[in-house]
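Worked Example 4.2. Consider the chain below.
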Amino acid sequence: MKETTVDFRSGELVLEGVLAIPEGDRPFPAAIICHPHPLYGGSMDNNVVYALTETLTQSSFVSFRFNFRGVGGSQGEFGQGIGEQEDVEAAIAFMGTVKEVDSERMGLAGYSAGAGFAFPVGVKHARIGALAAVSPAFDMFDFSFLKDCHKPKLLVLGSKDNFVTSTDLLEFCRTLPDPKECEIIEGADHSWSGYESRMAAIVTSFFVKVL
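Applying the procedure from the previous section yields the following structure tokens:
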């Protein structure tokens, strides 16, 4: 696996990201991973984001994690969710320029608020073929638009999540159209400390299957 720090543009801003490219014959399927809320310490160096990056790349995916505007070395300031959606659009556009990427096989993953920022973009974007949410922040975002989404989608939650109950997630999943998968990982809380590998394996298996 080769990791490269890159800059890419989101409107007038320059954002930073890390592109991880597996070894082997290209082009590869790809996944973009969006970090949790910037105002609560979220960044691309988050444990969940890094675990997803590593596991996906080990499974022959190009993975891309990046800092939203105002985080780390990314220019700007928090965009109230609107700017962050623009950043997701920019990340998808950037991945379309990476020669190792099969742009017909691209997934979008978000952790916590990262899914709230990413999914409104991903459901509409022609290049995104599948969506995965880890600990979706139902307490902060309205995900009801997924009820009209017929792309493959995965929602993963820890049974001890601090903000969303397993019952709420499963009830919401029942309202979604197929194809869909919903997983509850026993013992994990919102931080996923100690459960990163298991969570990342589930998300990676999903993307391998549907892309």
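The chain has five helices and eight strands. The chain has a mean pLDDT of 97. Compare this with Example 4.1 before moving on.
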